Amino acid sequence: MQDGGQGGSGPFGRGFGGGMGGGRGKFFDDLAGVAGGAFSVLAGLRAEIDSMVQAQTEAFVARLNLVKREELDAALEVARRAREEAEALAVRMAALEMRLDAMPAAAPSETGAGGGNPEPGSSESGAGEGGGAGGGDAGGDGE
Predict the structure, then answer these.
(1) I need a surface site. Which of 1, 33, 44, 81 has the fewest CB within 10 A?
(2) Are residues 43 and 76 both part of a single domain?
(3) pLDDT of 44-84, one tens digit each?
(4) 26 and 62 inside one domain
(5) What segments bear the compositional bias annotation Gly residues (predicted)?
(6) Number of domains present in the structure of the chain
(7) Quick check: 109 and 100 in contact, CB under 8 A?
(8) Residue 57 structural domain
């Protein structure tokens, strides 16, 4: 054995074992550098592919006239608020109707109901001046 068993007949053959192992370390350093460069290229390629796929997907969705999730959530929130407001208004209207039903029935002249429609046979201008059906002698009997 000429080189003292220092790697000349190892698995890599004669050129990679030389001496104290310095050649083998340089080879692996170079291999690691090449692998690191390849990984960085692959990572950049992956990022580029991801951005291209995302752009194509967004273009496809735009052609289909689909809405984005944020827009859908905003529309659902508006609908929820409108539904709550409508329910609150329905409760309020029911309470007002109950109050109206509980009120004693008043004559149309007391509440002002029918004030916009003059009675037949009377003119609009003379209705408030006492001329017309039942206009002038309110309480004339003394009762």
Answers:
(1) 1
(2) no
(3) 899 999 999 999 998 888 888 888 899 999 999 999 999 99
(4) yes
(5) 127-143
(6) 2
(7) no
(8) 22-66
